[in-house]
Amino acid sequence: MKTQKFMALILMGLGLFAISCAEKNKKQETEAKIVEEVQAPIYNTAEPQTVLAAIEHASGGWSDLWNKKDVEYTYDYRYPDGKADVSTERYIFNTEASFGKYTQHDINAMPEKDGEVMQYFDGKTTMVKLNDEVMDDPQLIGGAEFLRRANYFWFTMPYKLNDHGTIASYMGQETYNDINYDKIHVTYDPAITGKAQNDTYILYVNPETKLIDRFYFSLPILGVNDPLIIANYEYEDIEGQKIATKRTYFMPSPDGYGEQPNIVQTISNVKFNSGFTAETILN
Minimal CA–CA distance to 264: which of 159, 127, 107? Predict the structure, then answer.
């Protein structure tokens, strides 16, 4: 049980930290990404930033996602014992508004309560409802904002890794599942983030597809100072965007990593450009 709770905090915490790192430069980053080149960028491991740019391009491109305006999907976040959070997720890209309505919430969203949970972060403030009743508990509101921002980050991760302040270096190749992956070490400039310790990724980039199939990450905010947590991603092409519709996470133990993941996340029923606004996203 402790491991499960820790994993939940880890996956939520990474997303919030990475978003907060980029928050200072969100406007500039958005404008820069919108004018990205249409043609495939050079992929040169001697210049690791080009690999990050290639990842963005292979994922479908930020300008393409931006032009889709918004997204809705069904999100299943599940433990091996059957406990799960199941939500309808909606995001508006130009404001980073994040909405979630939970029909099952055993893990992160008020697991001790019965009924439907709704969370909404409009880019500035957060609202939480339980069975249509607005909650005013600051701890619930803070937890909801944490989760809303984290879920948005995970969905847009290929475009967040190359934000201002990223420090990338090449670590050579490693074979996994018969693929020779290029390994890219990514962290953040503390002068930009304002943090003494920053998250670290080791990305396994498929040199053929230019997608991140696997990565290790740290989480100093929760005492995981080395990149030890494993994530494996499987993608689907949905309207030109490569969406990681299955994500499996493995936590180390004294005996190493287990054969079965600690958490499995799936995304389904993806719909873009539904015309959501600050008013209609809640409906």
Answer: 107
pLDDT band at 139 (very low <50, low <70, confident <90, very high): very high
Distance separating alpha carbons of residues 183 and 144, to the nearest angstrom? 34
Is 144 in a helix, a strand, or coil?
A: helix
From 193, 133, 134, select the one nearest 167 (Cα to Cα). 193
The Cα–Cα gap between 168 and 146 comes to 26
Single pTM value for the model: 0.88
Is residue 36 a contact partner of residue 56, using CB atoms and an 8 Å limit? yes
Residues shown for the chain = 283
Q: Are residues 281 and 99 in contact, defined by beta-carbon separation less than 8 angstroms?
A: yes
Give SS3 for 132. Answer: coil
Residue-wise DSSP of 147-171: HHHHHHHHHTHHHHTTSTTEEEEEE
First to last CA, the chain: 35
Tokens 């905010």 -> residue: 221
Phi-psi region of 240 (alpha: psi -120 to 50; beta: other; left: phi over 0): left
CA distance 227 to 211: 19
Say how many C-beta atoms besides its own lie within 10 A of residue 62's C-beta: 23
237 burial (CB, 10 Å; 0-12 / 13-18 / 19+) is exposed
Query: Do residues 273 and 68 touch, judged by C-beta distance below 8 A?
Result: yes
Q: How many Å apart are CA 163 and CA 174, to the nearest integer?
A: 26
Per-residue pLDDT for 112 more than 70? yes
